[in-house]
Amino acid sequence: MSVPDARVMKMKKGNTHLAFKQEDVVELATEVILSAYVQHGNESDVHTLLYSIGPAQGNYQKTPSNAEIEKAVADKVTIRNETLAQF
Length: 87
What we know:
By secondary structure, the chain is an alpha+beta fold. It has one domain (3-84). It is built from two helices and three strands, in the order E-E-E-H-H. Strands 1-2-3 form a three-stranded antiparallel sheet, covered by helices on one side. A hairpin with a 5-residue loop joins strand 1 and strand 2 (16-27). The protein is elongated. The two termini are 27 Å apart.
């Protein structure tokens, strides 16, 4: 992404700035990064979760173990029934 792709992101304290948001999917036992994805700063985690988990699953299946993601850990506000139903 380039700087023109930056979006206005509202911070917790109410101020705003141009930003990107990086999301990483990490295998917790080994701390291996399965995917890293840069999102627009104004995209909510609820909408971007699948863009992170999907590629991570694909990368995980390319490992010698051919394992699958069984559980995901995310912020409480990220998890919605609609999102979970897509897994």
